[in-house]
Amino acid sequence: MSEPAAKPVRLVLAGQPGSELSRAAEMALNAGASVSLAADIDGALDHLRGHGGDLAMVDVRLDIAHFIKALKAESIDTPVIACGIEVPARQAVAAIHAGARDYVPLPPDEELIAAALMSIAGDETNSGEPPKGVDALVGQSVAAVERELILRTLARCNGNRTGAAAILGISVRTMRNKLREFTAAGYAVR
Question: In a 3-state reduction of DSSP, which class is residue 25?
Fold first, then answer.
């Protein structure tokens, strides 16, 4: 007997029209991910009121404090993650202080963002294939997941350590130290 398919996460995104986040969300949606896109805070609130959602990702340039206050006032328990591309640290910190559960730096590439969103939201179009997203990580150590993420990102960036570090939201020094650890442990580093 096969296991029931994991229910996809109902992801609600709030991003300014034409932004990298909104274009990536459209790409993920067109590929079959369970993503709803709102152009602003009010649109995201309307969607959550009418349809609910498991996770809200909000562009850090929007008024996250207002969004979180409105969610609390209406007893909507959807967790909020702030996100953005090349955002100053003070904006990310302000979003967390306003009540966002975390800040996720997004890569400056729409296809990478779309792939990440599809992974988070759960792509039902791939039933029958090996599990993707979080389900594929179950049973692996955090160190193994981190190593795989770093090495795949580095490969995607054609070995450019600075670019890979920026996508991952880590410093070049951290990247260099991690790669040194991987090499010492016998893993091939490009």
Answer: helix
Q: How far is CA 23 from the centre of its chain?
A: 14
Nearest Cα to 152, choosing from 188, 108, 184? 188
Tell me the pLDDT tens digit for each residue of 95-146. 989 999 888 787 777 777 777 676 666 544 444 444 445 556 667 778 888 8
- φ and ψ at 13, to 5 degrees? -115, 135
Residue 65 CA to residue 71 CA, distance in Å, equals 10
Going by C-alpha positions, the residue among 45, 77, 48 that lies closest to residue 64 is 45
Mean residue pLDDT across the chain: 79
DSSP state of 8: P
Cβ atoms 68, 43 nearer than 8 A:
no
Which pLDDT score is estimated for 152?
A: 83
Domains of the chain with bracketed CATH = 11-127 (3.40.50.2300), 139-185 (1.10.10.60)
Here the tokens at position 101 are: 């559960």
DSSP assignments along 105-173, one per residue:
EPPS-HHHHHHHHHHHH-BGGGTTSPP-GGGGGTTS-HHHHHHHHHHHHHHHTTT-HHHHHHHHT--HH
pTM of the model: 0.59
